[in-house]
Amino acid sequence: MSSEDLQEGDVTVSQYSAEPNVAYDRLYVKQRVVKVTRLNPNTPISNKEIRFVCLSDTHSRIERTPDAIPFGDVLLHAGDLTNIGLAAHVDTFNTFLGMLPHKVKFVIAGNHDISFDNSIMQNPQEFTKYIDVTRQYLQSRNLKSVKQLLTNCVYLEDSTAEVCGIKIYGAPWVPQYCDMGFNLERGQALLDKWNHIPNDTDILITHGPPLGRGDLSSMGLRAGCVELLNTVQRRVQPKVHLFGHIHEGYGMTSDGQTTFINASNCTVRCKCTNPPIVFDLPIPAGHSKSELAAINMEDVNLTHKET
Ligand SMILES: [Zn+2]
Ligand SMILES: [Zn+2]
Fold first, then answer.
1. 217: number of Cβ within 10 Å
2. What mean pLDDT is predicted for residues 100-123?
3. Which of 64, 151, 177, 224 has its CA 20 to 30 A from that of 298?
4. What's the whole-model pTM score?
């Protein structure tokens, strides 16, 4: 049996893993691509659904326009909140989050948020001058990590959170592409990370796209991860897979099971002009929206302190 003829649930490293453009040509012909109608953000919010507002790749360019963010119950950010992870910029981003009315906010890091990557903090190499500035900023506030600056959201890094019975998992890893933070080699190293995603995840947030969904760079390269696509389609099958990273790939599609959203707000020229994408999910049986009102962000943050 070829590795591409596996049954649902089995995910192993694809023989085309290291060549995503070849993988796309060989594998993607079997893909179902269903067009998705985007929800108008002005649609009234139902009491039986949670309205999610998606941001990604804002690169320190959105903080002055909090009024441009549509209203919703929960805000999600899929990484690259900054350009180079400077603590002062993370702090500004956190202040911006504090101005938004959404009851709960979930954020992951992207490859540009280098100060969130513990291995870069330990061994900054070419990023030394930026990490030194970040260290000074943190020391002046008696903090150990930039993650502690994110007091107005839940920071997810290979971890799960739950809101009104909806399970959300976040992970920052990307295949080696333009380096910086959270880069891993294609193949087993990334699959090892995706293997941590629980089967019952409803919303998966990764910084990088899966193969073939919002992953085509302006250079014609497929930047998506084959193993991430296989994990999503063969094992996890979340309702929504949210990501960014490839600014050119902004938009949404579905395979009939999962809605794939590339929510990059910045364009390929890094102009923050792509509007936030919103979606609704029904509240599972046994849960209600009143749980949202009862969520105390400080309590949630305590359970997610320093990873
Ligand atoms: Zn970006
Ligand atoms: Zn990125």
1. 17
2. 97
3. 64
4. 0.94
Report how many domains make up the chain: 1
Q: Is the pLDDT of residue 35 over 70?
A: yes
Q: How far is the CA of 299 from the centre of ligand 2 (A)?
A: 30
183 alpha carbon, closest ligand: 2
Which ligand has the minimum distance to the alpha carbon of residue 223?
2
Residue 5 domain-assigned (yes or no): no
Q: Which helix (H) or strand (E) holds 54?
A: strand 49-55
Total length of the chain: 307
**What domain range is 63 assigned to?**
11-303
| pLDDT value at residue 1 | 38
Rg (CA), the chain: 19
Which residues crowd ion ligand 1, with CB under 5 Å? Answer: 57, 80
The residues placing their C-beta within 5 Å of ligand 2, an ion, are: 80, 110-111, 245
For residue 158, which phi and psi values (nearest 5 degrees)? Answer: 55, 45
Centroid of ligand 2 to alpha carbon of 276 (angstroms): 17
Nearby residues of 54 by Cβ (< 8 Å), 6 or more positions away: 76, 77, 78, 242, 261, 263, 276, 277, 278, 279
The CATH number of residue 59's host domain is 3.60.21.10
297 in a structural domain: yes
Q: How far is the CA of 152 from the centre of ligand 2 (A)?
A: 22
Q: Which residues contact 69 (CB under 8 A, 6 or more apart)?
A: 53, 55, 62, 75, 100, 276
For 251-288, the pLDDT digits (tens) are: 999 999 999 999 999 999 989 999 999 999 999 999 99
99 occurs within a structural domain:
yes
Q: What percent of the chain clears pLDDT 90, i.e. is strictly above it? A: 86
For ligand 1, the distance from its centroid to the CA atom of residue 234, given in whole angstroms, is 27
Q: Is residue 4 part of a domain?
A: no
CA of 71 to the centre of ligand 2 (A): 25
